[in-house]
Specification:
This protein has about 160 residues and is mainly alpha-helical. The chain contains 5 helices and no strands.
């Protein structure tokens, strides 16, 4: 599906020679496709860890990771709606939500590090949580990138709203 969309974009560029806003839309779509693909890759990586790893679901850190995944997943769903509706205001709100995901990321890293230092015998379970946490943080970044590209499509400006 991604490759088909990329081909359509390239065909439009080559065959229609779009200018101004039309070209911005096509260029932004090409960039958005990359973020969508990365988001899917990270979801697949998380699923692999969940099916092959040895996570303890009773762990408080796991509950915090689940909440972080829910927030990042919501950001992605919202970014797809922003793309369809070209809603610049909502795009900016999505970018602000990434600050929440980044804060969750920092807290979970500290929490899991503390768990590892208290019980080094179960390191691999905690490492799985760290990987999932990093993937969730990146998912928020990809949703922010999509929102930024929608802003570019509509305004011609490409803000960096994902800056730390």
């Amino acid at each position: 599906m991604i490759r088909q969309c990329e081909k359509k974009c390239m065909d439009l560029i080559v065959l229609q020679q779009p200018i101004a806003k039309d070209f911005r839309v096509i260029a932004a779509c090409l960039k958005i496709l990359t973020d969508v693909e990365r988001e899917a890759d990270q979801c697949a990586d998380i699923c692999e860890i969940l099916t092959t790893g040895e996570l303890k679901d009773s762990c408080l850190a796991a509950a915090h990771v689940a909440a972080m995944l829910e927030t990042a997943g919501s950001m992605f769903r919202r970014s797809m709606n922003v793309l369809l509706n070209r809603d610049v205001s909502e795009a900016r709100r999505i970018c602000r939500t990434d600050d929440e995901v980044d804060l969750m990321f920092s807290r979970i890293i500290l929490e899991v590090s503390s768990i590892i230092s208290e019980n080094p015998g179960n390191v691999m379970k905690e490492v799985d949580l760290l990987f999932i946490t990093k993937y969730a943080e990146r998912m928020g970044d990809h949703a922010t990138n999509i929102a930024e590209w929608v802003i570019f499509m509509e305004t011609g400006e490409h803000p960096d709203l994902n800056a730390k």
